[in-house]
Please model this.
Amino acid sequence: MPESVSTFPGERLGLPKTGPGSVARPGRRIGALAIDYFAATLIATAFFGYNQFALPTEAGASLWSPLIVFAVLQILFIPTVGGSPGHRILGMRLVMLGGGWVGLWRPIVRTALIVIVIPAVIWDADQRGLHDKAVGTVLIRA
Model:
């Protein structure tokens, strides 16, 4: 018997089509990523400075500081408030598929996979990136 085709993202996961609890759509996800990275860049610039004319060899820590701050924000906010600042601002939260707390290791693994980009841009039919599939989470509308 052939597998049934889902008509909307999250149907196979038992999530509603729209509204609270439905899978967060790409526009919100990308917006949250932009908010988070912009915030990380502001924080990194405030603490580590910025020299737009520095060569990569001269830039030192300031070259990687926005990415490091981004990762720290993700790892701190996901287990404590249910999502990154960008997620929460745009009305989303990260949850376990089976319910319960995401714990500490899932945000670390998920963030590491986001930082290397490829797992975050490969999605399944439910619009879950490989980073979410790897740790058993889903980003939903709050």
Notes: The chain has one domain: 20-141. The first strand starts at residue 92 and ends at 96. The helical segments are 26-48, 56-59, 61-81, 85-89, 105-115, 118-121, 130-135. The chain has a mean pLDDT of 89.
